[in-house]
Amino acid sequence: MKPSLVLKMGQQLTMTPQLQQAIRLLQLSTLDLQQEIQEALDSNPMLERQEDGEDFDTSDQMADAAEKGDTAPTHQDSFQESSVATNNEAENFDESDWSERIPNELPVDTAWEDIYQTSASNLPSNDDDEWDFSARTSAGESLQSHLLWQLNLAPMSDTDRLIAVTLIDCINDQGYLDENLADITAGFDPELEIEMDEVEVVLRRIQSFEPTGVGARDLRECLALQLRQLPSHTRWLTEAQRLVNDHLDVLASRDYSLLMRRMKLKEDELRQVIELIQSLNPRPGSQIEASEPEYVVPDVIVRKHNERWLVELNQEAMPRLRVNPQYAGFVRRADSSADNTFMRNQLQEARWFIKSLQSRNETLMKVATQIVEHQRGFLDYGDEAMKPLVLHDIAEAVGMHESTISRVTTQKFMHTPRGIYELKYFFSSHVSTAEGGECSSTAIRAIIKKLVAAENAKKPLSDSKIAGLLEEQGIQVARRTVAKYRESLGIAPSSERKRLM
């Protein structure tokens, strides 16, 4: 066959840049969306934040008049209906009222906080027991930097300081010394003539640092260091030290009968000794949080009003945007200059960006409303009343594709009276019940957690026994499934849950 040119007609689905932008904004989390909005504000002069108390009508009217080449607005643009911020709740802003609230000059003997309320003036006093400065600091600190800070306060020679820095570098995030002292000693310059005894002495100095138990070489030494720091009058301290030093392996195997015989203690006495050991921290390094704290900002707020569950967007997390009326007034339709073309393109992008934000909020509201409609039992009674729910159910209810529902529910959070949950938390698989119904996996996990919490500590429930108890409630679950749900809840096997209680 000879190559030839053929003209054909066909249809093809093409994603416009505006649609791509809407989809990208849809899958962003609240924090990422705020960053995206800030970048749009920095790059597009037509966009600006809508502050509280400002009149929103004038911006769209001026933009509409500018599009028509008029000097004054003639009618309200339809763009106002698609904007994120509305003027229903906005109040008229009076500059005279604002100027009256600010005095012309401040007295020389007063501070700014005496007249204006700031965030610092709202901080609780030092006498408040609930005040926790560490919980309100955002900068994380590594364990190594925390130990080096204490090392700088400790008087020691240059050689000992070199040894201490080397030892601190060998301590992992859990607070344990990873390297062997012999290997550490061999790693120093032979001209320094550092012996292992010197390294061990410096290690003892580091083990006196905070957090207590840091620098230990194994669990036994870590617990012994923490017991050593307790007051001498602590009850059962001597027995706890003896148990850690001589019988820690027996305690790990939970052979309490053998432990009582070896330590010559009664059951109640051994229980109190074990409680003292359990109050210690086997991972002291975990007390120092190196990573930055991550804050969850809910996208949707759910509350109950007059026996009805109401869903609303978190307006505080969504900055309100509008078109800058001054810049929009410079745009003229008949002008084809480069500056006017640039401003017209920026105005078009600003409108599309605000429209995409509104589309994101509307889709999020539809999905959240349907989720609340399906999971009213969870909101009223807790996890045990969670119903099975999949993406297809919500997609059918809102008339969208499952992929869109997946984007909406990813990294989006809902604030409920029971806590803050990711939207994906409300989706779960199901198992069949004896009556022919369905039970969600979330409800089964809640039931398992409840059964374990109420079990006899001396004879904990095995996975087979839990499966049998679930079957008595009409829930048909295999033992392997119970084990999988138990592990996802962080519950140890029955052999490790045995306690002297």
TrEMBL record:
<protein>
    <recommendedName>
        <fullName>RNA polymerase sigma-54 factor</fullName>
    </recommendedName>
</protein>
<dbReference type="Pfam" id="PF04552">
    <property type="entry name" value="Sigma54_DBD"/>
</dbReference>
<dbReference type="GO" id="GO:0000428">
    <property type="term" value="C:DNA-directed RNA polymerase complex"/>
</dbReference>
<feature type="compositionally biased region" description="Polar residues">
    <location>
        <begin position="73"/>
        <end position="90"/>
    </location>
</feature>
<feature type="domain" description="RNA polymerase sigma factor 54 core-binding">
    <location>
        <begin position="133"/>
        <end position="327"/>
    </location>
</feature>
<dbReference type="InterPro" id="IPR007634">
    <property type="entry name" value="RNA_pol_sigma_54_DNA-bd"/>
</dbReference>
<keyword id="KW-0808">Transferase</keyword>
<dbReference type="GO" id="GO:0032993">
    <property type="term" value="C:protein-DNA complex"/>
</dbReference>
<dbReference type="InterPro" id="IPR007046">
    <property type="entry name" value="RNA_pol_sigma_54_core-bd"/>
</dbReference>
<feature type="domain" description="RNA polymerase sigma factor 54 DNA-binding">
    <location>
        <begin position="341"/>
        <end position="499"/>
    </location>
</feature>
<dbReference type="GO" id="GO:0006352">
    <property type="term" value="P:DNA-templated transcription initiation"/>
</dbReference>
<dbReference type="GO" id="GO:0016779">
    <property type="term" value="F:nucleotidyltransferase activity"/>
</dbReference>
<dbReference type="Pfam" id="PF04963">
    <property type="entry name" value="Sigma54_CBD"/>
</dbReference>
<dbReference type="GO" id="GO:0016987">
    <property type="term" value="F:sigma factor activity"/>
</dbReference>
<keyword id="KW-0240">DNA-directed RNA polymerase</keyword>
<feature type="region of interest" description="Disordered">
    <location>
        <begin position="40"/>
        <end position="59"/>
    </location>
</feature>
<keyword id="KW-0548">Nucleotidyltransferase</keyword>
<comment type="similarity">
    <text>Belongs to the sigma-54 factor family.</text>
</comment>
<keyword id="KW-0805">Transcription regulation</keyword>
<keyword id="KW-0238">DNA-binding</keyword>
<comment type="function">
    <text>Sigma factors are initiation factors that promote the attachment of RNA polymerase to specific initiation sites and are then released.</text>
</comment>
<dbReference type="InterPro" id="IPR038709">
    <property type="entry name" value="RpoN_core-bd_sf"/>
</dbReference>
<dbReference type="GO" id="GO:0001216">
    <property type="term" value="F:DNA-binding transcription activator activity"/>
</dbReference>
<dbReference type="GO" id="GO:0000976">
    <property type="term" value="F:transcription cis-regulatory region binding"/>
</dbReference>
<dbReference type="Pfam" id="PF00309">
    <property type="entry name" value="Sigma54_AID"/>
</dbReference>
<dbReference type="InterPro" id="IPR000394">
    <property type="entry name" value="RNA_pol_sigma_54"/>
</dbReference>
<feature type="region of interest" description="Disordered">
    <location>
        <begin position="64"/>
        <end position="102"/>
    </location>
</feature>
<keyword id="KW-0804">Transcription</keyword>
<keyword id="KW-0731">Sigma factor</keyword>
